[in-house]
Design goal:
This protein is α/β, with parallel strands linked by helices and about 425 residues long. The protein has eleven helices and 17 strands. The protein has a single domain, classed as TIM Barrel.
Amino acid sequence: MGYFSSVYDENFQDAVTCNGGVIRNGREILFQAFNWESHKYNWWENLEKKVMHLSKSGFTTAWLPPATQSLAPEGYLPQNLYSLDSCYGSLHQLKALLQKMNQHKIRAMADIVINHRVGTIQGQGGAYNRYDGIPLPWDERAVTSCSGGKGNRSTGDNFNGVSNIDHTQTFVRKDIIEWLIWLRKTIGFQDFRFDFAKGYSAKFVKEYVEESKPIFSVGEYWDSCKYSPPEHRLDYNQDNHRQRIINWIDNTGGLCAAFDFTTKGILQEAVKGELGRLRDAQGKPPGLMGWWPSRAVTFVENHDTGSTQGHWPFPSDHIMEGYAYILTHPGIPTVFYDHFYDWGDSTHDQIVKLMDIRKLQDLHSRSTIKIVEARSNLYSAIIGEKVCMKIGDGSWCPNGKEWKLATSGHRYAVWHK
């Protein structure tokens, strides 16, 4: 089976133009510049010291944690959206960081948390669903009826325990758009990551991107993969899972990419001895990457799945196989802070080497891929006709003297012409 997307076009060329905002030419390499504990460590100043190194390593964008004042130190329970003094540092420190990133041509990605907002005082039903005394002083009409407000029903999933924002309200969308434009034009963010994108309709993300014009945007549409009882085993076919992500991207008008949770789910099972999972029934990569690579932001781990939360962790002894896969394949790869800075020089240097190969061989989100082998202990593929790679214990190398070994490590190798 194929998949349905009303806006999909193989020749979408290098961008979907969005009134000046553009999904770029697919040569991004993202860096997730934090983990779940980063708020404890004067983070903006810590990152400022690393900007030059990140630039030399080849990252194009650094996704920063939520910069707004929040009732949770990690930033995901925002209250005063216009206050950028947070547990990560002051507004002054943030602006210094963004200025340095701009000097070194790394785009700053803001973490946009607009599914929910903690009120300042109690309103209807005793819930904290009024925002008196701070900018955007909304009343209960701004909160969905399913989370204790006077607004309409939610257009997505409910985020429990907090007032969920009603994006159907015109005044709410107008205020959010003005805030997003302020983040871009006044503060200096260039890219957006939409948190908990399942919580409200994708058509609102489309409107927010069209009006605020980020250079690049990505949504966290985190849906559950399909597992089968009794041993809760991941199904081989995850087409319905990736179709739901496709539908979400489609409903943003194709203006917003999405994190490739399908690829993560399959890849972290595959590396444990089921590498045959990495080829779908049509011979393509089995994640979002195989169906709409230019909108697939691939990753091995993030602050939720790994770090100290560990909700859905990648097997730690296979991390480099994961990076060998996403950094050579189509899609837009993301490197996680912990692996780059906390796992020691060896892991860091191996990731940099893979990034170098991606750049030197001009691999990008739309690079062609031919899967050569996909069986339990071996996966191999040729990407862009100029790079080939393998992961797993099985022995394999490409045919032809034109192929030269570019890098290798535990259970992976990469060649180029």
